[in-house]
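thought: fold this chain, then report.
action: predict
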Amino acid sequence: MTFLPCYVAMQLTGIIHDVSLFFVIGASYGMFSHLFLDMLTRRGIPLLYPLTSKSFRIANFKGGGIGDKLAIYSCTILIILMLLNFKVPFL
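observation:
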């Protein structure tokens, strides 16, 4: 279930007022990108889990290699620089 219908329901019922729509949209993008990237691995993900336990995958990549570590370290550095409000010249 996505965050957007939950956000709309909570706003209509008056349960929550402090949740920003940008947070909800960002969390939804994060959730869907995580699912998509998990579909790129060998194991895949069970998209229709209550109906079937068959795993769906798009590619057959193996994680944990040097490319994986390089991506993690470079993204971590970029996130730290963005949090420090450092202007990255190529972004």
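thought: worth noting. The two ends are 32 Å apart (CA to CA).
final: tokens above.
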